[in-house]
Amino acid sequence: MDPSTIVLLYAFIKIARSKSVNFSKKTIVNTTTLITWSEVSMAIFLKSLAINGEFIFSGIIDYFSYFGASVTYILFLIPMVSEMIFFVFYNLSGIKRLIGSLLLLMQVADPAMFNGYLEIPLLIAYSIIMFAVLYLLVSYVYKHRQSLNLNAHKMIKYTIILISISVAGIIEPFIITEPFGLSWLLLAVSMVISMFLYFQIVLGYFD
Predict the structure, then answer these.
(1) I want to staple 152 with a disulfide (CB 3.0 to 4.6 A). Which of 23, 51, 75, 148 is the partner?
(2) What is the pTM of this model?
């Protein structure tokens, strides 16, 4: 993990643990944007290390492919999931903990994490997890439908949109089979959105 990412994560932890300071929504959006960009940069950097910088860029499609392969790669997922586990169970509660846990589950069985190895078993596992995530979310909404406030409704709406993009992401490889990263581009995009939403939740955007 590069020094800039460590500094940003330290700042993120300090902000997330602060109970006495209320940050404006603009500040939270700017902070989550910066941290998400740092995470994506780390993913690209780790991928370049894994392949020893050997990647030929001959057109814009190659850049999209490299992005898709980087964000879905196992070396990036390990620190990202570790961070999510810490904050989901340490800093969140109620509907925020539920959605944080669902976002975490959606990262765990990333079908592209091994660059094509075990792709089918992971795809099946991811599909099952997606179904479970949707079921848990709908069940929670039905059970607490009388007590959910506006911010909770917003989190739920954004999560459902994210699930829709993720579903499109696991269908994409059957339509676009190569290059590898491009076939998982939508899933990579959904993971970046998931990070952004997760950081917003932890920093109190929906409080």
Answers:
(1) 148
(2) 0.82
